């Protein structure tokens, strides 16, 4: 699905957190939003999954304004994993993942055998099959995060919106989660704190500073010494991974 931001300004009260964000994301592209705390990453994402209405501008999904389109239609096409989601701790993992199917059901429909197969597949793909019968309240933060990703996959969206999806995950699951997301073939927009993970997995990186886009493009074009210094206040270098050639990030404190 194609996602377009047209001059989006959004925030809280009278203080905008993002200003005049204009960006086009092609179908199947994996875009990583990066930037220091308070740069506006989460705010941009909230305008996509209808958690925060833009004060100005539009967010378009395949040409339709997400804020004027039918809510149910958007729910079927967009799956979001936010920073503060807990998924309902009284649910088992499987019950939580089943929620991903509900946008596709009628008001009185029950999950079909096919829906249950989709739920099972999502649990397996995220490594959560062994957690299926466990209440979410008994899971670690990382396990819950993987279950919530499974819920998003069960929704079978055309657009996946992820806000710090690797929070609480150990290195193994950080790498496997982003590798899985990158291989889905759907459009992805994700806020990521770890520049190295963004460089390895995203096709496009958008660097935000003070609510505005400071740089956007492939990792090699965005993660430059200038951007490292001006946006992140560090010295940094992009180098090829000696095993697979993918870009990797090395960071150092600024020499003063």
Automatic annotation (TrEMBL):
PROSITE patterns: ABC_TRANSPORTER_1 (PS00211), ABC_TRANSPORTER_2 (PS50893). Pfam families: ABC_tran (PF00005). The keyword Nucleotide-binding applies. SUPFAM superfamilies: P-loop containing nucleoside triphosphate hydrolases. GO terms for molecular function: ATP binding; ATP hydrolysis activity. Residues 3-235 form the ABC transporter domain. Keywords: ATP-binding, Nucleotide-binding, Transport. The keyword Oxidoreductase does not apply. This is Iron complex transport system ATP-binding protein.
């Amino acid at each position: 699905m194609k996602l377009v931001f047209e001059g989006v300004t959004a925030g809280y009260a009278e203080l905008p957190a993002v200003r005049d964000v204009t960006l086009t994301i092609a179908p199947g592209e994996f875009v990583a939003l990066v930037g220091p705390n308070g740069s506006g990453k989460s705010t941009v994402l909230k305008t996509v999954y209808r958690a925060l209405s833009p004060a100005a501008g539009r967010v378009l999904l395949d040409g339709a304004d997400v804020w004027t389109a039918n809510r149910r239609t958007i729910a079927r096409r967009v799956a979001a994993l936010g920073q503060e989601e807990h998924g309902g701790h009284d649910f088992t993992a499987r019950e939580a993942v089943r929620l991903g199917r509900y946008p596709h059901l009628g008001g009185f429909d029950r999950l079909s055998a096919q829906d249950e197969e989709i739920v099972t597949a999502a649990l397996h793909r995220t490594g959560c099959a062994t957690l299926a019968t466990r209440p979410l309240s008994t899971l670690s933060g990382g396990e819950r995060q993987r279950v919530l990703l499974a819920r998003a996959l069960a929704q079978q969206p055309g657009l996946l919106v992820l806000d710090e999806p690797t929070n609480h995950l150990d290195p193994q699951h950080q790498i496997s989660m982003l590798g899985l997301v990158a291989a889905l073939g759907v459009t992805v927009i994700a806020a990521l704190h770890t520049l190295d993970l963004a460089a390895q997995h995203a096709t496009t990186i958008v660097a935000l500073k003070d609510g505005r886009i400071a740089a956007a493009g492939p990792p090699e074009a965005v993660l430059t010494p200038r951007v490292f210094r001006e946006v992140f206040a560090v010295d940094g270098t992009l180098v090829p991974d000696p095993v697979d050639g993918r870009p990797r990030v090395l960071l150092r404190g600024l020499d003063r």
